[in-house]
Amino acid sequence: MSFSLLALLCLVALIGPLLNLNRKFPVPMVVGELIVGIIVGQTGLQIFDASDETFTFMAEVGFALVMFAAGAHVPLGPELLGPALRNGALRAAFVGALSVPAGLGLAHLFGSDNGLLYAVILASSSASLVIPSMGNTPIAGRQGVEFLVQIAIADAVAIVLLPLAIEPSRAARAALGAVIVILVAVAYGIFMDRFNMRQVRKVSKKNGFALEIRILLVVLFSLAAIAVAMNVSVMLAGFALGIAASYAGQPKRLKRQTFALTEGLFGPLFFVWLGASIDLRQLAEHPKAIGLGLGLGLAGLLVHGASGFLRLPFPLAVATGGQLGVPIGAVTLALTAGTMETWEAPAIFLGAVVTIAGVAVTMPLVRQFFKAQQRAERAGGEELPAKRHVDARVEG
């Protein structure tokens, strides 16, 4: 890695936002950045070497920050307790139960030993994909809260189980590491919620110290260090800390700082690195990879869509099947651990793209549903729980 390559990397990463500007067919920025990585990586021009140690380490930092942002997207509040928590958890468990035979079946069909990994991927959801896809449409009503709970639980549980599914032989150590990471994140969330940090924020803002982001990065990288030492992914460190930050509430200033740090450099760098590390030529050399990718994507949408039989509107049920962070994490971790065949990585990536396409198709129906919920609330003069950011109660 050199400054010239870093400048080129930042330049090509701009293509992601440019592809997203198309109003008729907007390409999610993440997908655009992955495509760029594929073009400049080992599949295409081979400008960037994904095995470069500096590039890989910077990508790991980006991965932790991206998963922090995903965790911070998970809304937490008193409206998530009670029946909404019970129903959302029940649906997530139902999807998980369906995912196990589906994942094992796909592995048997395509001659892979990663059936449990496929099951975790199928059961996963993506708060960082689905919630931003809603745009300005508020997620309102009891079913909306249950929808959010189902996504949050599926996302969190899959991220915890992912390292265990990838290397079952190290499951005990990874489980202990996951518990430690989660406990530290919980302690951070409780501390930030209980203790008044207003004076610290005031001094930081007045003197330009940026104390909030410095403290956050100390905790994030400490969690990442624990995770790596205990054979747990940095994705869990970032996601757990993001949920803790969502619980405690983030000042607006801190949100802007983390957004700039993630989306300005490290996030795009991670996705370009990931695209550069995947060899899509394996799809042509191994036609079964295409079948596996399509199978994973369609099976993911089907098992999540089945939660519609548990009184969740089918467009919402299918939308919970959107997958992003977990498939990406699976590819990243499994390739690093050497537990995945080279043809499986592009297949998993293809499966994630299929689920993203499924979310894109159903999202107009989802937004239409919640707009109807809004109109019903206004007509009835009843205010039901709606999507709201917990950190709105914290002054910037």
Describe the structure.
There is one protein chain. This protein has 396 residues and is mainly α. It has a single domain, classed as Na+/H+ antiporter like fold (Up-down Bundle). The protein has helices spanning 3-13, 15-20, 29-40, 53-72, 83-110, 115-123, 127-133, 141-166, 171-194, 198-207, 211-229, 234-248, 252-277, 281-285, 287-305, 314-319, 325-337, 344-380. Helix 15 (287-305) runs parallel beside helix 18. It is globular, with a radius of gyration of 20 Å.
Key traits:
single chain, 396 residues, mainly alpha, Na+/H+ antiporter like fold, 18 helices, 74% helix, disordered C terminus
CATH fold descriptor: Na+/H+ antiporter like fold
Helix content: over 70%
Structural class: mainly alpha
The CATH class, by name, is Mainly Alpha
CATH architecture: Up-down Bundle
Domain Cation/H+ exchanger transmembrane: 11-358
GO biological process, one term: proton transmembrane transport
Keywords: Antiport, Ion transport, Membrane, Transmembrane, Transmembrane helix, Transport
Subcellular location: Membrane
